[in-house]
Amino acid sequence: MTDKATNYSDKELLGLFRNAETRDYAFNLIVRKYQERLYWHIRKLIISHNDTDDTLQNTFIKVWTGLDSFREDSSLFTWLYRIATNEALSFLNSKKRRLILSLIDVEKQLSNTLENDEYFNGDELQLKLQKALLTLPEKQRLVFNMKYFDDMKYEEMAEILDTSIGALKASFHHAVKKIEKYISEH
Amino acid sequence: MDKPKKTGSDLTHIIKNNPFIVPEGYFEDFSSRVSDKIHANEQPPLPARYTLTWKPYLAAAVIVIAALLAGNSMFNQARIRKADRIFHAEVSRTVEEELHSISEETILEVMKVNSFESPAGSTVNSEEVMEYLMNVDLNETDLLNTL
Predict the structure, then answer these.
(1) Which of B11, B15, B30 lies closest to A35 in CB terms?
(2) Per-residue pLDDT tens for B31-75?
(3) Contact check, Cβ <8 Å, A121/B35
(4) Residue spans per domain, chain B
(5) Which of A31, B21, B48, B146 lies at a 20 to 30 A Cα distance from A179?
(6) Least CB–CB distance from B19: residue in A28, A121, A180
(7) What is the pLDDT of residues A98-134, one digit of tens each?
(8) Closest approach of chain B CAs to the CA of A32, in angstroms?
(9) CB pairs under 8 A between A and B
């Protein structure tokens, strides 16, 4: 099924989606084509698998309701990535609001989740890197993940995050410096 | 996707592959779970008896009925106001006629009952009577009842 999904171009998938008879089938193919990339993007921001699962489902529900109005000004992948990013940031903000009310530090809570996560398979250094990432502001963490882990081009990132390339380069540079400092101190 | 890659700068000692994993078979059934959730959230259409469709003749009928009710109400109010005016005019005229027919002795008797003393002692003129009536707050019906 995943092979079938990748056999179709985005344009073909959108054409199938706009046809009422093949709408469900096309949506299923779109989910299969992009689910893994979006999952890992969200997971690196949210850390917990269960929260990532919820957020990814919400992302695709938004995609289902909004795909009719997608005008193809950007690529389908960029549009999906943008929705996933917004959903992940909204989730983190709402979590922050909930935890602030109960006086719990969000970064500390995410760090604990990381240490006890049965679905974290990294070594000690990778754990340290993830913990260092949790000390960064969300936008900086997002930029670092997209550049460092996903090898994304600044042009693509600029389109997804609606930010200038210069700002993204500066953000990545600051993130690297902070991470190196954290790793050397811990 | 998860091939180990070395990073540039001082992060070179950290292998750049993905340290996170997912439960076994997670991606296999994800799309069907999403589809199920989407279709479960979609509201079924309302039963026919609850659907409200725009029917111009119904709207016209409602407007005509509302106009008739409003017109009827205005007509009734005008009729009531006219009947009130006729009644008051009739009562005023009757009272006036009755007052003229009351003898001076009767008026003096009423004044006596209500402890009125004439400044002149024995005779009163019509202005004094009217002033007295206004002072004791005696309405037309009460006065007629005393006759």
Answers:
(1) B30
(2) 999 999 998 877 665 555 555 566 778 888 888 898 889 888 888
(3) no
(4) 52-101, 103-147
(5) B21
(6) A121
(7) 877 666 677 777 888 888 888 888 888 889 999 999 9
(8) 6
(9) 73
